Amino acid sequence: MRSRYCAFVLRDAAYLLRTWDPRTRPATLDFDDSLVWQGLEIVRTVRGQAEDTLGMVHFRAHYRFPTETGFSADVQEERSKFTRESTDSQWLYLD
């Protein structure tokens, strides 16, 4: 999750698509250039350990966006599921 958050901050579409499960991966990604990412807060994880092939990350991604009078802050909160084919393969974002 942390590496995908960093990829969003850097607008690294290639990395995001490469680490997205093919069953749910979009053809392309669009970024909102007005957002300024402020930080990632991991709230909870379920499974996702070395011996697992499924996991969930509950997180909050903090960001700012421009308004007519300056900037306003908001949070994107999500529970993301990750999967991998075997314990020696890479984790992929599922949904």
- Please name the CATH architecture: Roll
Report the portion of residues in β strands.
35-45%
Q: Portion of residues in helices? A: 10-25%
Report mean pLDDT, rounded to a whole number. Answer: 95
Order of helices and strands: HHEEEE
What number of domains?
1
Please report the first level of CATH classification, the CATH class: Alpha Beta
What does this structure look like?
The protein is of the alpha+beta class and 95 residues long. It has a single domain, classed as Nuclear Transport Factor 2, Chain: A, CATH 3.10.450. The chain has helices at 2-10, 13-18, and strands at 36-47, 54-67, 70-83, 92-93. The chain has a 4-stranded antiparallel sheet with strand order 1-2-3-4, covered by helices on one side. The longest helix is centred in the N-terminal third of the chain and has 9 residues, at 2-10. It is globular, with a radius of gyration of 15 Å. Residues 76-95 are annotated as: Disordered. This is YchJ-like middle NTF2-like domain-containing protein. InterPro entries: NTF2-like_dom_sf, YchJ-like_M.
Features:
four-stranded antiparallel sheet; Nuclear Transport Factor 2, Chain: A; alpha+beta; 95 residues; 4 strands; 44% strand
Layout of strands and helices, then pairs:
Layout: H1 2-10, H2 13-18, E1 36-47, E2 54-67, E3 70-83, E4 92-93
Outline of the structure:
The chain has 95 residues and is α+β, with helices and mostly antiparallel strands. It is 16% helix and 44% strand.
